[in-house]
Structures are given as structure tokens and as C-alpha cells.
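Tutorial, part two.
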Amino acid sequence: MRSDREEIPAPFTKEDADKAEMLEAQQRSTSGTSRMSLLATCQTYWPSPYSVCGDIRDKYNSLGGPASFLSFPTSGNIVNPGNTGERVTFLNGPIYWSAATGAHPVVNSFLNRWGIHGYEAATGMLGYPTTDEIVHADGVGRRQEFQRGAIYVAFQNAIGSAIRNGLIRDRWNAVGAHEPGSLLGYPIQDPVDLPDGQGRMSRFERGVIYWHPTTGAWDVSGAILDKWAQSGYEAGQQKYPTGQPYSTDGDVTLQQNFQAGSITVPGPKAQELALWNPGATADDIVQEAQRLATELSLTITDVVNMGLTEIAGAAEGLGDPDPGVDTIMPTPRGPGDIFYSKAATARVSHGHNGIFATMTHSVEANNNNGVYIIDNTTGGGRIMKSPEMFWVDTSSSMRQSAIDFALSKIGLGYNAQFWSNKVVDAVAYNCSALVWAAFYGPSNGAVDLDADGGLGVWPLDIKHSPLAIPYP
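Running the prediction step on this input gives:
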């Protein structure tokens, strides 16, 4: 026997191998039409003592037979309950077949999740597989399609999640499905039938889709989802979503309507401004924009667009900033001079300003201390990042007035919003607002260090001001 000459791979026994060899011999010895019919439909794979037949055999062979990821068969063809199709089990998973869907393997996380939902049963969520496993081009995830839905497996959710065909999946497809940069990303939770007995929801990486028979299927994400969650989702005061988010002010705010109300949150433009103003939230940006719009008789859209336009020349960039060169702060030529140095807050590189009150001390503002005075000679000299020194082209008396102004603000808080900081008598300052106001206020606007005249004054605006004369 072959089992006496060759090693038998686990988990098969000599008895299994001998039975398999006898089955192969019987198939070879069968003559005539019956032999041709048997060989055309079934095949035995030594040392497995099972024959695999029909379309499942063809699929198995196309995958590589025993050399494939399935390995050897552990059953013959099994008729599924209700005579709806067949399956064959292999060491690493089964192949399922039905006349309507063909033959497809289901393995690993897909098999586990499919089993949770009832396999191919008519009462199950998904039914028979209609494809093999599909690897996505994004290198992140895979999926397998079934008669009534799909299972998605991604690195972020290795156990897999199911999604039903229908309006929720249609909505997910409409907002980009799993594609890179899509609104919601991959599903991370199986569909849930909601407690009210009417609605259904699916959860994704970056949001949810809720369906109700009277409102349809709508996605909810971001800050709107956060607020909706705080109120209790569909069981809260707003109930189910009735449409997609929209903006009436050019993306400064976003609004989404629900059955019993609406939710409004900062939109993409307010969020972008907040990125450039670390310490200020997007809600802070909206509130400040509303104040400025009223004060300047402009729309909130105009105000925010002006702020975003000014940033192009006012800040050096987001992300990893230019670190500059560690340098001891130079001695000023006289009190009332100012400086600019490289600096970043929360990875926003917008620089830093200060005004010298004496030859050794400067008045500045930062997010840790508010407005404060610092001795630049302590410890052998204060280390700054590529400091640049300037004198202000105005009278000595005006420079002294600027010093007095700055000293009078010591102890006030910090204003995180550079984009709208041009207030002389403020309750809080950032570094550039303090230096600007110190000259602008006492001079009644005659000494304006804002280079571009925008809504805000940034450290680079002061550096680039024609009135800020660099040391030779």
C-alpha cells in the first residue's frame, strides 16, 4: 500500500490513507459510461478518505487542490438543510455551493462571522456566498459578498463585520463606502435592530448610518454624531435623522435635521481655522466669527474666509515646524525694541514676539503664563530659536508709551485666537496682539505693526511690518 511507502500527513491515519487508495482504485477500475461519469464528477485526494464531487471539486482544483489554503478535504459532499445546496469541509474551511451562486470557499474571519449570522440558512442574515474573498486595492481590507449582504475584514477590525444589502448599504456606498478618504470608512459593528422595533443601524470607523421606515437611511458623523450621542441617539430628543448634513454659511457651520429638531456644529472652515489657532476650539472660532460679523457688518462667511485667506502669509505651516537654531537672546539696542523668533504651539509654526521693557527684561504672552515679564539674562542667557531683533520706527516717547502699555497688561490671560486678535484694550492677549496693541493703542493707530491689515495680527505680520526695522 502507498501508506507503507510514504509519510502520511496529519491528521490522517493509515486507515484513512488505505481507504483513499482503495477509492482511487475503484474509480480507475470502473468501466464504461459509469466510469466516465464518476471521473467527471468526483475525485479523491490521498490520504483523505473522501471524494469531492461536482462544482465544488472544480472550484477546489482551480484553487490548487490539497496544495491550496484549504488543504485536504475532511468530508465528502454534504447536502445542506432544506436541500438548498451542498458543502464540503476541508482542513482550513469549507466550500459552499448552490445552483444560484456557484461554489466559493469561506474561511477564517469570514467563516466565523458568517457562522454567527446563521451560515447559508434562509433565516440567516447573509445566505450563500456569491464571491470568493476579495482583496481591496487600499491594502487595508477585504470583503466577501453573500446573497443578502457582505462581510468586511480590515486591519482595524480583524474579526470582521457584516453589512446587509439595502438602504443602509446604499447610503454607505453613496458616501464612498470603504474607499480611502471616504466619510465613514469600514464597518466595525454588525447591523443592529434598534430597541423601538422599527429602526436599524450600522456603525463604521468614522460614523453611523441609521435607518427608519419613515425617514430612510442617513449617515451621522463627526461633531453632529457626538452631540446626538449625548442626547441619546434615536431615543433622545432629536430622534432619527431625516437628511444629510448641510451648510447655509459656506461651511462655517454644519446642520443636520432630525425628526424632532436639528443639530448645528462648526463646519470644515471653522475647524480649519481652529487648527491654525491652537487652544481655540472650532466652537470658539464660530462664536468669534459671529461677534466680528456683527461688529463689522459682514456675513459670518465673509469673516471666516478673510481669516483663512490671511493665514497664507501669517503662519509658517502646520505639522513639523522649522525648529530654528538655538541662540542666546541678543541684547537690545534700547528699551522699546521688539523681537521675532521661531516658535510652534501644538505643531503650528507661527513664531513669537516680545517687547523689551529694559535692556534685560521683555514683556511677552504665551499660553502657559498669559502676559508676563521675563529676565533674558538668567542662567547665562535665554535660549531662543533663531531670534531676530528690530527697532520700531517711531519716537522715543512713543516707544516708552508702548513699554508702559505692555507692563500694564502683565497678569492678563492668553488669547488663543490669532486670526481675530486686534483689540487694544483686551482681557487677554497673545504675543503678537500684545506687541501690536502696545504701539497701536498709545499712538491712536498711527503706529500699526500689522503688515497686511487683516482681521488678526500674527508674529510674522509684525516681522514684515515696514515700521519694524531689522538690526543691521
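The chain has four domains: 1-76, 77-266, 268-312, 326-470. In part three we will examine how such features are distributed along the chain.
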